[in-house]
Structures are given as C-alpha cells and as structure tokens.
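Collaborator request, handled under Task 6.
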Amino acid sequence: MNEPRVVHTIPMLFGPRGTVGGAERYALELARHMASKVSTTLLTFGDEPREETVGPLCIKVLGGAWKVRGQPHNPVALALVPELLRADVVHCHQQHIVASSLSALVARATGKRVFATDLGGGGWDVSSYVSTDGLYDGHLHISEYSRRVAGHDRNPRAHVIYGGADGAKFHPVPRAMGPRRRGLYVGRLMPHKGVRYLVEAATSEVPVTLIGQPYDAEYMVKLRALAQGKDVSFRHDCRDEDLVDAYQQALCVVLPSVYRTDDGHETLVPELLGQTLLEGMACGIPAICTDVASMPEIVEHGVSGFVVPPNDAGAIRDKLRWLEAHPDDAARMGRAARTRILDKFSWADAVQRCLTAYAEAARGPRWRLFR
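Structure tokens returned to the collaborator:
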C-alpha cells in the first residue's frame, strides 16, 4: 500500500494538547507523528462537531454522539460512517466499544484494512458476548504484556508497536542547585495506580508531587489524610510546558501501580504500557515502578531506575532515599533512561511498526461485501 489515508478513532473527547497520561495522549501522539508520514485523521466524539489541526494532523470531533448505555467512554455517532469511507486504513483505539465494532464492520464491508489497539479501557458491545478479534486485520499492542493478557501470544496478526516519547519535547536541562528534588507521579489519581503507596512513602525528608485529575472526591480525601505531616503536593491542572518542567526538575518519575488495591479490588491490566514513565525518562531522570504488568519492559532495574514490589510503600521510600543520597548514580541512571527511550521507545519507531503492519495486511486477501 502506497501512501495510505489513515483514520484513527478514539472514544473520549479531549483538547488539542491531549490530557495528562492515559489513552488520549497515546492516540493523539501516535496520530500526530504518523501525520508527518502519511495522510492521517484522528476522530473522536462530542456533543458538538468541530475540526482543528495539530501540524499536519487533522482532528475531527463528531457531534451528536450517543453514549451507549450511558457510558461516557463508549460514544458513537452516525457521522462516523462517511469519515470511515474516506480512509484506506482504520485504526481503532479501544476494541471493545460500539464505535470500534461498527468501524470494523464498515471497513470489512468496503474492503478497507482495520486494526485495533487496546489502551486499557472498555465498554459494552457485541464483544461482550462473542469475540470480535476476527473482524480486524491486525491487533497492534502497546507492550508484550498487552499481547499476552489479550491471549494473542500465538496470533500471527498480533504485533507489538510499543509507544514513545517525543525526545525533542521531553528532554533534559542543566539542573542548578536548589531545593530538595521531589519524587514525581503523573497520571489520574486512581486506586489501581497505587498512588496511596507513594503518599505513604513520603516523609518530610522525602518530598513527593502528584500531578493529575482526581478519581473521585472520597478518594482524594483519603489521599490528603495520608499526606498529613508529610511533604506531599497535589497539582490537578498542568499545562504541557509545566509538565515537562516538572519532569526535568524531579528526582525521579514514579509509577506505583498495583494489581490489587487496598480495598480489595483486583485488575489484570493496571498498566498496558506506562506512558508517563517514557516521558519522565526521556527528560533524563530515573524511574521507579512496580513489578506489575508492562512496566518492567520499560525500566531496567539498576540501570535506568528501579523495579520494586507492588503495594510496598517502604520499598518506594528506600529507593527515593537512595537516589537522593547518590546524586551521581542518579544522574547516570537518568542518562541511561533517556538513551533507552530514544533507542527503543520513539514515536517514529511506533509509527513505522504500524505502517509495516498496514502494508503487510494490504498484501493479503481482501474480503468485502460491496464492490
């Protein structure tokens, strides 16, 4: 396939800057970097239609979206169909929602190629009852863990594309002497993210900053109660430039996600990649993550950071203290972290893996209902 017209679909509405962490940032950045190679449109849903551009990327918000079963993360709109008909390749972010199943059916019916990438969300549609895997020409996973947990280990149409961090945007800066550096968490403040263990790890001598939107008011009350008497700061709104500065000035980036939360809830997919690890490491700081899901694929223990047991505030505290007490070793780890991101987790590489998968599928047999 030469110069395909690619449409990416993502359910949630977001602004042109994306959001802190999560599926929206991943889909936006992949589409934005793909747009420098081939014609690319990113489709999402909202109450009112609008259109804008981010460099060569066209972003279209499809208005009049119906939220399936009232689920805000499962919208669909009739305006989706004509947009799909203009594409050669349809790339759905989040497989198990109505918009993706509809996109796959339209693509199959008209002989287009269609792919799915799971970003950790879900909803209700026909895939709740029967597998829709066969509707897609390929499953493009963001980690080996994602492919494994989806049961696609031996599926020849399942590929790992990973994700990336923009090395020009997320970059190191000279670090002047100043206040004690802080452990930094970036992402939604949710129980399965394990943020309570990072708050527990903080002391007056081990400062921590958490950047992200609250999960709910009750959970924030719990976090603030745990933070009493400790040096913990919360930031709920952060512009991209402020986020980059926060990474650059941090002691390290921390992602303490867990399989089992303190209230007993369990999830097999707390992190399918760990985008904020990539961004922090690209800024030249080491990472601390838990030995959970995909994160050990990113952080090399003792080289670019530390991998610690989940649900263990003491282990996090020990590594924060070690990095504070060993600034030269921490700087070495930070350099290794950036090198790892540039070598293995660039958006250019992720885009090329997608384009290769698209092209391979185009060489296969084509099934369609209408000609």
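The cover message to the collaborator said: "The chain has two domains: 6-164+346-362, 183-344. The longest strand covers residues 40-45. Please let us know whether this matches your experimental observations."
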